[in-house]
Structure formats: structure tokens, C-alpha cells
Amino acid sequence: MEMSVFPRISLKPEVTNFLQSVFLNKEVLAAVGHQEAESRFQKLLRCLSHPPSYTCVRASTHLAPLEEIRLKLAEELAKQMGQCSGEEASLQILTHPQIPDVLLLPVDGPRHVEQVSSEVVVGAQCGSAVLRGAHVFAPGIVASPKYMKAGDVVSVFSDLEGRCTRGATSFQGKRAFVGNGVARMDRSSLFCSDEPVKGVGVQMVEPLYQSPSFDGVLPSLVFLQNLPSVVAGHVLGPRPGERVLDMCAAPGGKTCHIAVLMRDQGKVVALDRIRNKIDRILENAQALQLRSIKAFCFNSTQAVSGDAAPQAEEPPYPPESFDRVLLDAPCSGLGQRPNMGTTWSLKEICSYQPLQRKLFQAAVKLLKRGGVLVYSTCTVTLAENEEQVAWALRTFPCLSLQPQEPHIGSEGMLGAGLSPEQLRLLQRFRPELSWDQTGTAAPLSCRADRDTIGFFIAKFLKT
Predict the structure, then answer these.
(1) Whose CA is closest to 222, among 74, 51, 443?
(2) How does DSSP assign 74-95, residue by residue?
(3) Binding site: residue ranges?
(4) What percent of the chain has pLDDT over 70?
């Protein structure tokens, strides 16, 4: 697949320059030299627009043994692929060598797909979802041919800069081809209806990246979750009977994982600022038969109270209320894959550090002495990752970095003035270190730990 067909991530020039200065900082240049640092940065820009070479699902091992879930999943997906392609599909589903509740499914791509003349344009977010196995849902479609009818074969393109006018009949701006599909709706029902459109607009039949769709597949037994997010739950290490706080909990994947790791014994408090996200967490908990989860719509920066009862049920909570705290912080999200483009300004990218620090301060206050705090993000900047660790260690003498188990990512990145020992205790998932377009040669179980989203984990003990 030509790189011109599948471009690197589309960013505003100011954001590209900023990221380049991060990845070519003085400490990195002194350690690896200009050429290697530049090469890593260019690989990062390229790999971010591609999906990882596998799909990771977390299995509900509290409801059934892993092997039973693996066989059920194989059965379900074989049915799905039989329906799509009319051939007997043999799907490889592997277990992870170190993480006991993870299943890995290879993704095939980028494949050679011939484009057709009818073109549908979708938003960048929708395009990214297609690269991970989704069909095109109607709200994601921004342009279609003038006379498009249900049943037409169309090529689907992602609008990288968000410049396509909704309802257009064609678009020549910056875009990326993501595969071919069959229209399931006429143009008129997409753009001429007064009601918001719902349902599948284009069913993908020849995606550039072939991976199974998990829509409605074993909803209580498998949960789509990026591998580093699953690792973060294990690093937190919650135990039965503890009180654990998940500060920015939506959509609830990590919350439910924490409850499972505690064998549903104890209490998991999930906070999030957005009401409908709280409903989603509670729905997930119910589907997974988890009773230890309590979720509240609340701003975690204000979760510490001076005068609440020691075992307060609802937020805010008195200091030292929790045995463990997970702060999976709101962030610039620049590690997400595939991400073909973001229209964010540099100001937006850099706006998260102060909020993360406010949340961190609340987390430290709410944590008991002897308790564990895990801080994580899905971004690649130093300001939101290693610099936050350096700040935390300066600001809170009661905190010390702890070894992480499992530690399958790289160590922390140079550039924030941390010592080699401190960097070794951090876990940064860096797909750019091993990424190349032919990277499918290594066995999947080896690739899985390297070909991830960009992600960061730090684990602290409060003394």
C-alpha cells in the first residue's frame, strides 16, 4: 500500500512543530542523536494514522474461564464472517502470554483494494472507526454521490481536516481512502430528512484493514479495550475488600475491570462529569453482574470534602478515604490509533496540564497512607506524562514511584529531568519504536506489546 494513499496523521503545522520539539528534546538528542530522534518522530506520525495490527478484547473471566470465552468468540465471529464473505473463515484468537484476561485477534491490512468511481466521504472519527472494523453509521457521512441509492457499491474516504460541507456531492480536499462498501441508504434519506438519521449508512465489504466488528458480539463476555488500558488496571492491583476510586471513569471499561480484579468484593466508586456517561457505566456494570460499583456524576477536582462523614457514600469524600485511586486523566489523546487527523490548535493540545494537576492534587488527598495511585494517559507529550511525574514528586514528598506489574511497555521518555531509575519505573507504550509497514512478520504475541496505542502509566505509593 502506497504511503500516498494512506497518509501520516494530519495535524496543524504548529502542533507538528510542537511534537517535533518534544521528540527531539535536548535529553533525547544527547542520548540517541539527531538522525535517530527524527526517524522515531516521523515513524510516530505515520503509525498514529494506522490501527494496531491486532484487536485486543478483555474477557470477563469472572463469568467464564478464558478458554471457554475464546471458543465462544471464535464461534460468533465465524458466523459473522460466514455471513459477510460466504467462505469458511478460520479466525486466529490468541491469549496474551502475560495478561490473564486478554484475547488478541490479528488485523489484516493495509490490503490492496481497488477504488470505484462512486465516492462517499465520512468524518475523520468515523474513518478511524472503519479502520478498526466498524461499518459506516449514517451520522458519520458528510458527502455522497448525487444519485446514490441503497445497494450501490461505493468507495469510502475520510475527510482529514473536517473541511467537507455536509450534504456535498463530491469533495477534493485532504482525504484518505479506507475501503469499499455497499450503501444501505439512499442519498435523500441521509440528507433530506428532518429527523436525525440512524443506523448503518454504508456496510463495509472491502475495508482497507480487515478486522471483526464487535457490535453486539457477546456483550457480557468480551469488552473491546486497548491493551495498555487493561495493563493499567493490573498495575493498580486492587484487592478484594478495598475501597477504590476511579476519578475520570467514563466509559467504564477500567471501572469494571477494577471490580472484576477485586472479585466484586469491596467498593469501586466511579466519578465522571457527564451524566449520560454515568448511565453507561452503570449499564456496563449491570451487564457484567458487578455489584461493587457505585457511579456518580461529579467533578473529581472537587471530590475532597473537609467535613463529610468518614465513610461517606456519595462525593465529596473526606481525605484518606480510598485504598487505591486510578487517575486515567483527560488528555490531548495524541496516542490514540488510528487517528488520521485532528483539527485541534496547539492551545487546545496544551490545555490539559493544569486540569491534570488539579485532579492529581485531589487524588493524593483522597488516598490513604500506604495507598496506591496510578496516573495514566493516552497521549504522547512530555507535558502530560513524564513532566507531571517530575512535578508530582517535587510537590508531594509523601509520594514515591513504584515498580509496575506487568511491565510490558518501554520505560519513560527522556526530557523531563527524571533519573534513569525513575524512568525505568514508568511505563510508556511507544509504537514508533518498533513500527514499520511490514511489521506483521513477528508473531502476534510479541507484536502485541509494542504495536499499541501511545499510552503512559505511573504508579505511586503514598507514605
Answers:
(1) 74
(2) HHHHHHHHHHHHSS------EE
(3) 248-254, 272, 307, 328
(4) 95
CA distance 247 to 272: 7
Q: Which range of residues forms the domain containing residue 61? A: 54-106
Task: For residue 35, tell me if it sits in a domain.
Answer: no
Predicted confidence band at 88 (pLDDT cuts at 50, 70, 90)? Answer: very low
Residue 286 lies in a domain: yes
Same domain? For 306 and 412 the reply is yes
Is 79 a domain residue?
yes
Per-residue cell: 376: 495514566
Mean pLDDT of 286-308: 94
Q: Which residues are annotated as a binding site for S-adenosyl-L-methionine?
A: 248-254, 272, 307, 328
Residues 6+ apart with CB under 8 A from 394: none
Residue 419 has pLDDT above 70, yes or no: yes
* 458 phi and psi angles, rounded to 5 deg: -125, 140
Catalytic residue among 56, 126, 256, 378: 378
Is the pLDDT at 163 greater than 80? The verdict is: yes
**Residue 406, preceding bond cis, omega within 30 degrees?**
yes
Query: Is 56 assigned a catalytic role?
Result: no
**Measuring CA to CA, how many Å separate 291 from each of 64, 236, 355?**
17, 20, 31
Q: Which residues pair with 104 in a beta bridge?
A: 56, 94
Residue 212's pLDDT is what? 85
Domain count, the chain: 3
Residues 281 and 324 in one domain: yes
Residue 34 C-alpha cell reads as: 539527531
> What grid cell was written down for 316?
465529596
**Closest alpha carbon to 142 in 119, 121, 156:** 121
**CATH number of the domain where residue 172 is located:** 2.30.130.10
Do 286 and 310 lie in a common domain? yes
pLDDT score for 308: 64
Amino acid occupying residue 313: E
